[in-house]
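pinning this so it doesn't scroll away 📌
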Amino acid sequence: MPVYLLGNEIAFPPADQAEQGLLAVGGDLSPERLLAAYSCGIFPWYSERDPILWHSPDPRFVLTAETLRIPKRLRRRLNANPFRLTMDSAFGEVITRCARARRPGQRGTWITAEMSRAYTELHRLGFAHSVETWSDRVLVGGLYGVSLGGAFFGESMFAERPDASKIAFVMLVRQLERWGIGLIDCQIETKHLARFGAVSWPRSRYLIELQAALSKPTRPGRWEWDWAPHDS
């Protein structure tokens, strides 16, 4: 299985050459390289003591906005309007909480200090976005990811109250659909996202659909709801 060593040039080998998901090692987390990676179906994922590792898994776990499925119990919670939701209001705090969140079977976090700085810079440039869930004035859940063209690349979420991240996710997908951003990259399969209708695609299909999504204009800058999130 070839694993490529990246140099200073902002370039990646073809994503379909990642036989077991891992494609390349090295490089940096500059905004230019990160955006190039996402545009090619590649993302960074590594631990604190590792070099930067670049992945393109096969299959790819994907949700499309029109196939979003909301479990009945969660729909009742949505109708009860338990939280206040914002967008791009506390990106730094969201990524920090995601890094601190304890996850079953996971020791430590892949959201290193280097990753946090890199995605915070992407946020400053208008390409990385967050959704925040508040109980009164307390941040209790949220998520963040990267958006290019008609695609949103989900990175991580956290919840400190029941359903806080789930409600953030559902409302984000609804908003993305209104903006014509229909491809949501979930990267790796999880039971949590499968409940919402995410499915595994062959990487070959994902790469084709990604290029179609990237033909749409990117929506940069700070995001805001263009609807009241609990109206539907």
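📌 and the second one:
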Amino acid sequence: MKRIIVADSSCDLKESDFTGEKNFKFRIAPLTINGPDNYEFIDTEDNDPKILLDKVSEVHGKWSSSCPSPNAYLTAFEDADEVYVITISSKLSGSYNSAMNAGKMYLDKYPNKKVHIIDSLLAASGLALIFYKLRDLIDSNEYTFEQITKKIDKIRDESSVLFVIRSFDTLVGAGRMMKISGMIVAALNICPVCGDNGQGQIKILDKVRGTGKAIRRMIDTIGEKIDTSGKTLVISHCNNLKDAELVKQISLSIYKFKEILIIPMNGLAAFYAGDQGIIVAF
């Protein structure tokens, strides 16, 4: 039985970290960040997100991101008997639709194979959280494909992300925030605490002054949303291990998470969260 887990590169994970897995192979389908003058950053682990952020700060103009093609997903499927795909929220990217098209093509060619596409309704560490839960289900050797898909969809429905960002340059450059709004927010030292709305979109939950207060408000919000007992917290950061460790230590002191994991952001998450950004998933 050959199993493949595929995630798009918004997941903040790296293929090389999971080469030793015995029960499945892990593959990344990279997104692409596009900038002025035909600049292109393919979001693979060989490409440093810092290079991307430096380019964004240097080159002003229209920035955007594009999802993996169906063929990119098909290549990642290889010849697996069971394929599980985790994508960034379909409300934020076309990655889910691309994966769905790939899944249909794969099953048309191999009707006896099995494919499950998971619209995470999240981003960044939210996909990583789902990946870790999916890995646990597969490694348990207790469940059929159909049981795993049912359980992982339930986990997806119960998961959330929160984030705090310090830099608004990439949001402005990519058209996610008006330039004047970004300037006002930065000038007033306002740090929005944002999160998912439960339907795959991002909303502002609170506005506080100062990143320290914003991070603490984000941590407090975790406890307002869930009972943390036995749960997993995944923290992704963009060049900000210090604050990621702070979130971990405070969370350890006030909550009952089973495990807390810290991972650096890949290119796409770093692009939108910006330098020093922090995203948590639970």
